[in-house]
């Protein structure tokens, strides 16, 4: 037996085949939770898209099957099934059972590829309980089954008269690897829809379908207009600043004299949120990379140059920062390049150093040309960027004021904050409570050791309709920021789609938010169970989503669920959280005590938290052992962005349409 203090040859462990993937799956797919599960689907889907990019496929289908398996189909060339010359086994087996085996290394089979590493399909194979492959090509129909990285059946090969070629892969994730309840639906349709929609915008030559066998729903995605239609989708409930969508398409040579293609579509709207999405070989690089930094620098350069050369003298004193030029911007940057260097197998950030200069030069040249040829549009955009600069400078002053007043000691906390005695963020909880009437009972009833109470007055500012300078002057928002202690995401990088703060260009403002300084790891919104309460809750959620989203992403934001009713009979006091539960309790009491409908079971409807005394509020809504909390999460950033825009933004017509189409689902209405 080895001594723990020695390090000898016998201590070296060699993992054969795909054992390393099963041993450390997170290295290849990010994690073993929901994200990793869906990454399996996307790895296979990326291979199908590569066939479409190469011009070999125009139909891609994903099917969620009733047994919780998933199937991906494309009508491309079909994975090769002839014997590999080195292994003397079918090429399919080599691809599925060996890392770094594939047709994407020599640039003959694929000039452009998102599934670069030759590990995607083998990783999926390694992490599935079973995987079945069906391939049609060369007049043959080929079927084979695999399990946990190795084949468990010999190939079934039969002749076919079918002319069309295709690949069909069906798999079920390994319950020994992933965290999921097999009694529930394993894959989330909304997550897959979001990715398929992206791919359809980026791959206009292919039609995509999602078939959900649980609900018998089918979704089709086909966008001949490509990323210009993507911009129209992102801005559909916003007020465009200019009607036309700016579109740039060009290519340039890299250091190896290979073509790099850049497609860019962008449009400004009259709002203040920024939505910049970047893709490399159709992979959503959610943390940006060199293509994003190249775009940012070119945007700043082009608009500053336009001010200097074409704007009136009174505007020439303004020098824009990067954040100024991106206020209210929706943009999609899609590049295609050979040999992309992603940060990891999960491909969240592009690292090719030469791409920054290539993209910067293309966008600077083409955008400058567009601005010169469209002076009316150019002036509208430039005036918006100058207003953004003035607002940013005002916001800086407000932010500095907050900084000076937001030391962590409770003596400098907001006056209405009743802080807890614990200094351990993992134990501490902050209840953001609607109004002083509810704040009083909450302060009296809380556990002072770990529960802090911050009452807010009325409805906070709707941040969807305000610039940051106005937001930072709002008293209630100032109180929340100070109490939390982590600052605020005050640049456009707070949108969660493309951070890339490591490579900010000159003049960019850094984010002022630091999650490590968050003073409470449970931030709980506690509002009345009426229409006003729901409105305040929505305003707070809008603020957190737009400017404090890491608190949501790290699982620290919750919504308290107060009871709707107290049902009393004799010595029975039962707190009820829904109308359905109330009816059940009433029937149970009537049956137990043989009551008629006229006997005086007392039902009290709580419309406000202030109607409860301190003990009731603590026992029902705040006590760890008995309370109900809803954790705030989201699965599809773009859909959430659109819903906040629709419900809280400037465009009234979109909101009216939403209300009219959903009025029959309203179950709480105060008149």
Low-confidence parts: 6-15, 407-411, 493-510
From the 3D coordinates, which CATH architecture of the largest domain would you assign?
A: 2-Layer Sandwich
Radius of gyration: 29 Å
State the name of the first-level CATH class of the largest domain: Alpha Beta
> What structural category arises from helix and sheet content?
alpha+beta
Query: What sort of overall outline do the alpha carbons produce when their principal axes are compared?
Result: globular
Mean pLDDT: 87
- Total number of β-strand segments? 22
Number of separate helices:
20
Distance between the termini: 78 Å
Approximately how much helix is present in the residues? Answer: 25-40%
The biggest beta sheet is recorded as:
9 strands, mixed
Instruction: Kindly report the CATH topology of the largest domain.
Output: Heat Shock Protein 90
Q: How large is the share of residues in beta strands? A: 15-25%
Estimate nothing, just give the exact number of structural domains. 3
At the fourth CATH level, what is the homologous superfamily of the largest domain?
Histidine kinase-like ATPase, C-terminal domain
């Amino acid at each position: 037996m080895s001594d723990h203090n020695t390090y000898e040859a016998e201590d070296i462990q060699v993992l054969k085949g795909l054992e390393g993937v099963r041993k450390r799956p997170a290295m290849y797919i990010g994690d073993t939770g929901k994200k990793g599960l869906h990454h399996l689907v996307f790895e296979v889907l990326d291979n199908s898209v590569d066939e479409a990019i190469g011009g070999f496929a125009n139909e891609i289908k994903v099917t969620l099957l009733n047994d919780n398996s998933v199937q991906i189909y494309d009508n491309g060339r079909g994975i090769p099934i002839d014997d590999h010359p080195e292994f003397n086994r079918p090429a399919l087996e080599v691809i599925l059972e060996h890392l770094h085996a594939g047709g994407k290394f020599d640039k003959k089979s694929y000039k452009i590829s998102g599934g670069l590493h030759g590990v995607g399909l083998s990783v999926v194979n390694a992490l599935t309980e079973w995987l079945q492959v069906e391939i049609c090509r060369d007049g043959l129909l080929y079927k084979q089954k695999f399990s946990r990285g190795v084949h468990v059946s010999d190939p079934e090969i039969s002749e076919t008269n079918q002319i069309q070629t295709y690949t069909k892969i069906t798999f079920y994730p390994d319950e020994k690897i992933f965290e999921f309840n097999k009694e529930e639906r394993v894959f989330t349709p909304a997550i897959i829809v979001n990715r398929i929609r992206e791919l359809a915008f980026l791959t206009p030559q292919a039609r995509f379908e999602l078939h959900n066998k649980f609900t018998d729903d089918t979704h089709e995605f086909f966008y001949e207009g490509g990323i210009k239609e993507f911009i129209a989708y992102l801005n559909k409930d916003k007020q465009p600043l200019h009607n036309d969508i700016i579109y740039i398409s060009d290519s340039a040579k890299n250091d190896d004299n290979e073509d790099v293609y850049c497609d860019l579509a962008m449009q400004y709207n009259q709002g203040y949120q920024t939505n910049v999405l970047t893709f490399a070989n159709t992979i959503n690089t959610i943390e940006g990379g060199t293509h994003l930094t190249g775009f940012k620098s070119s945007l700043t350069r082009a608009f500053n140059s336009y001010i200097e050369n074409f704007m009136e003298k009174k505007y020439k004193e303004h020098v824009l920062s990067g954040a100024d030029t991106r206020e209210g911007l929706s943009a999609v940057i899609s590049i295609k390049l050979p040999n992309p260097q992603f940060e990891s197998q999960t491909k969240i950030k592009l690292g090719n150093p030469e791409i920054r200069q290539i993209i910067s030069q293309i966008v600077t040249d083409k955008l400058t040309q567009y601005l010169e040829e469209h002076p009316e549009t150019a002036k509208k955009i430039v005036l918006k960027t100058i207003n953004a600069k003035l607002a940013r400078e005002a916001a800086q002053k407000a932010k500095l004021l907050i900084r000076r007043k937001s030391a962590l000691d409770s003596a400098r906390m907001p006056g209405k904050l009743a802080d807890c005695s614990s200094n351990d963020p993992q134990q501490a909880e902050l209840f953001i409570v609607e109004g002083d009437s509810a704040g009083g009972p909450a302060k009296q009833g809380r556990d002072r050791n770990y529960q802090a109470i911050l009452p807010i007055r009325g409805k906070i500012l709707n941040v969807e309709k305000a610039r940051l300078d106005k937001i930072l002057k709002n008293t209630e928002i100032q109180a929340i920021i100070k109490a939390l202690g982590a600052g605020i995401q005050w640049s456009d990088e707070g949108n969660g789609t493309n951070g890339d703060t490591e490579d900010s260009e000159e003049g960019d403002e850094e984010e002022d938010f630091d999650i490590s300084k968050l003073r409470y790891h449970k931030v709980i919104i506690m509002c009345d169970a009426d229409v006003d309460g729901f409105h305040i809750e929505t305003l707070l959620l809008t603020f957190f989503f737009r400017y404090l989203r890491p608190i949501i992403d790290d699982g620290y934001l919750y919504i308290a669920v107060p009871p709707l009713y107290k049902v009393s009979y004799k010595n029975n006091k039962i707190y009820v959280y829904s109308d359905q539960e109330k009816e059940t309790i009433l029937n149970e009491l009537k049956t137990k005590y043989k009551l008629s409908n006229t006997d005086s079971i007392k039902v009290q409807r709580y419309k406000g938290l202030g109607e409860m005394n301190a003990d009731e509020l603590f026992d029902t809504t705040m006590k760890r052992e008995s309370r109900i909390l809803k954790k705030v999460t989201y699965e599809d950033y773009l859909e959430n962005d659109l819903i906040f825009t629709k419900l809280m933004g400037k465009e009234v017509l979109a909101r009216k349409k939403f209300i009219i189409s959903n009025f029959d689902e309203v179950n709480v209405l105060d008149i």
